[in-house]
Amino acid sequence: MRHILIRVRLGVESVLILALFAIVALTFCDVLGRRLFGIPIYGAHDITEHLMVIIIFCGLPLVTADRGHLVVDLFDRWLSSPHLQWWHALVSVSVAAILFLIAWQYVLATQQAVQIHEASQALYIPRSYMYAFMAFTAFLSGLSALLPASLLNITTPAHDQEGNPL
After folding, report:
1. How far apart are CA 143 and CA 108, in angstroms?
2. Phi, psi of 127, deg, nearest 5
3. Rounded distance between C-alpha atoms, residue 75 and residue 38, angstroms
4. CB of 65 within 8 A of CB of 2?
5. Contact 106, 132 (CB under 8 A)
6. pLDDT at position 100
7. More confident residue, 165 or 127
8. Long-range contacts for 14-23 (Cβ within 8 Å, ≥24 apart)?
9. What's the pTM value of the predicted model, to 2 decimals?
10. Cα distance between residue 141 and residue 66, in whole Å
11. Within 10 Å of residue 109's Cβ, how many Cβ atoms?
12. Distance in angstroms (rounded) separating the CA atoms of residues 91 and 96
């Protein structure tokens, strides 16, 4: 199970890195073309919009798996006691429920986008794919909120003596 989670994490991180690089390169070329030649890249806004969705929603499962969401630690002294473990479980289930609800709303948005043929303004990229991706990653985040933190602590995969991942 841990090996599969490491592979999934590396895949998500790779997509995130590629999308971030693509948005930087696209923005650089668009500004360069606009300022030097007076010719912006046609549809750069649409592509940037879709790449931002990829960046944000690829990051969501990673942040959830690392338990890196914004927290207020005013009551940590009391809530970290062993007899309040039920509270942490309740919070994890609540976060997962909210993420599953968000995923469900994006599933509904995907269905609606397919029905009305919703597309981006300049390039007419169908938005249903974007909504489906958002639903999938929100669902993945909900699953990672339910898994124990010890199982998800996979930021650096273990290696054998030869340096190969385990």
Report:
1. 19
2. -85, -15
3. 56
4. no
5. yes
6. 97
7. 127
8. 15/54, 15/58, 16/54, 16/55, 16/58, 16/59, 16/62, 19/51, 19/54, 19/55, 19/58, 20/55, 22/51, 23/48, 23/51, 23/52, 23/55
9. 0.79
10. 11
11. 18
12. 9
